[in-house]
Amino acid sequence: MKTYLVGGAVRDELLDYPVKERDWVVVGAMPDELLKLGFTQVGKDFPVFLHPQTKEEHALARTERKKGHGYTGFETHYDATVTLEEDLQRRDLTINAIARDGDGSLIDPYGGSADLTNRILRHVSDAFIEDPLRVLRVARFAARYAHLGFTVAKETLELMSEIVAQGELQYLPAERIWVETERALREQDPQVFIEVLRDCGALKALLPEVDALFGIPQKATYHPEVDTGIHVLMVLKQAALLSRKKTRREHVEINSAHHTEGPESGNSQVVFAALTHDLGKGITPTDVLPGHRGHEQAGLPLVEDVCKRFKVPNAHRQLALTVCEYHLHMHRARELRGDTLLKLLEATGALRQPERFNNYLLTCEADSRGRKGMENRDYPQADYLRQARDIANAVTVAELKASSPETQSLEGKAIGDALKKERIRRLDQLRESYRSRDTALSG
Ligand SMILES: Nc1ccn([C@@H]2O[C@H](COP(=O)(O)OP(=O)(O)OP(=O)(O)O)[C@@H](O)[C@H]2O)c(=O)n1
Prior knowledge:
Blueprint: E1 2-6, H1 8-15, E2 23-27, H2 31-36, E3 40-41, E4 48-50, E5 57-60, E6 63-66, E7 74-77, H3 84-89, E8 99-100, E9 106-107, H4 112-117, E10 120-121, H5 133-145, E11 151-152, H6 154-165, H7 174-185, H8 190-199, H9 202-206, H10 208-211, H11 228-254, H12 268-276, H13 295-309, H14 314-331, H15 338-347, H16 354-369, H17 380-394, H18 397-403, H19 405-408, H20 412-442
Parallel strand pairs: 2-5, 10-11
Antiparallel strand pairs: 1-2, 1-8, 3-4, 4-5, 6-7, 8-9
Helix pairs in contact: 5-7, 5-8, 7-12, 8-11, 11-12, 11-16, 12-14, 12-16, 13-14, 14-16, 15-20, 17-20
């Protein structure tokens, strides 16, 4: 019996990238031998065990053959005669099919080290095609390692296109698609995930609403990049960048558990909202292009469709709907009257859901910066809205009651109305104070 480190841990060690978990493959053993050594069995369909001390996963070397459609249609074969090379051959990418033995020597029969050096994501064998989930996995690895210079090999992209053309993606359960997508949205360059899916036709199959945005023009005055699909890719990049910065701050402040995905993990709620914020632009009637009046409302049912299709968690869905409906309000926050501003604060969770509100601000900032030549622009609207939130929050029932004899006796709806009126008055004051400052500055 011999044990080897395999998969992501070997790959990431060689790349000098943070290793998350270590998986092992065991050659020349049967399940009862591992059980006798104190391992516990966890795999249902194939023999995977947890080490008695480290609890790291140890799988018996196995081969796989496709039986039916989709991700689960496999026939697995394992016994003490299955070799390491056979086990590595069933794996997706050459860079994931390298093993390291106890002496530190690499076993690399499919050229994974060379592909790591040459920054290539390449399939191991034609068996790649047997697992349609790999289309999403390759796009996700491309998003993770794009900044290191990795691209997908031409012949691998061809196999991915073949999987899509055969309609195999439709057999993937919604949950599996969402798990891969959500992980991809947290990667360093989530826009690369979308680009790779588009290059092999998977975007059209999975997210036709996003695919439809490519080729749709916007007004060049606001959007020098013109193409809506290109804009969305730029917004994704900004959303990842901005949400990583925020995650780093939070990590320092509250030592939260956000960092399970490594130091560069973005916020998938923000990135998902970035992906879906302009879906309405894909159904703008052609005779009004490049204008998109009303695209926010038009996009809402499309966001709902996507969320339903992939069983998207509620927090992601809520933020995506909020951003879709209110991103333009945010961009012109300084123009809004007190009553509209208060409605916006209420609708975006400013008063009760601080996390959703912060994520809303971040996504809108990403939208503003996700335009050609505007990547480094300031976004003063975010501070303005935070100030507006603080002003609205500062008006309390106790303070209102203490302020005058008339308000002291107010109860129920009446006090609610008075609270609202006072908030609106102060928000109008905020707007006016900025206006006078602007006038003074320009005068
Ligand atoms: N559909 C899949 C899933 C997994 N694997 C193989 O199983 C290993 C472990 O899978 P997983 O833990 O999902 O991925 P990692 O490569 O460890 O990547 P990550 O860093 O994202 O966890 C992979 O390296 C790959 O060799 C595969 O070939 N095909």
